[in-house]
Amino acid sequence: VQLQASGGGLVQAGGSLRLSCAASRSTFRFSDMAWYRQARGKQRELVASIGDGIGTNYGDSVKGRFIISRDNTKKTVYLQMNSLKPEDTAVYYCNFGSPYGNFWGQGTQVTVSS
């Protein structure tokens, strides 16, 4: 299984970005799909997660600004990021859970300028 994340980039504070992460080379259904992020010098933290039909969960710092969604037919998870702040600057990683283990994407850089 390979996860390919895309959509990162440089944006001004207050702007928006949409991240995508698609799985390839898989024949099974994924359970939880999530986005994590890691800022320089900090630990990786959960940004948002979405279950397979059982709801979403958001980190406190992104509630009300970010929206996670998924398309099971495309095996893709999305993260719509609005009202971005400089403190959202980080490498964003996608993570998919399955009966066969957890899979990580390669990360995509998001930089928010003030």
Would you give an account of this structure?
- With 114 residues, the protein is mostly beta strands.
- The chain is globular and about 45 Å long.
- Helix content is 0%, strand content 55%.
- The protein has strands at residues 2-6, 9-12, 17-24, 33-38, 45-50, 56-58, 66-71, 76-81, 90-98, 101-104, 108-113.
- The mean pLDDT is 95.
- Strands 2, 4, 5, 6, 9, 10 and 11 form a seven-stranded mixed β-sheet that branches. The chain has a four-stranded antiparallel β-sheet with strand order 1-3-8-7, with no helix packed on it.
- A hairpin with a 2-residue loop joins strand 9 and strand 10 (101-104).
- It has no helices and eleven strands.
What is the β-strand count? 11
> What letter string, H or E per element, gives the SSE order?
EEEEEEEEEEE
Shape: globular
For the biggest sheet, the summary is: 7 strands, mixed
Can you give the helix content as a percent range?
under 10%
Radius of gyration: 13 Å
* Number of helical regions: 0
Average of per-residue pLDDT values? 95
Which ranges are low-confidence, i.e. pLDDT below 50, for 5 or more consecutive residues? none
Alpha-carbon distance between the termini? Answer: 37 Å
Structural class: mainly beta
- Strand proportion: over 45%
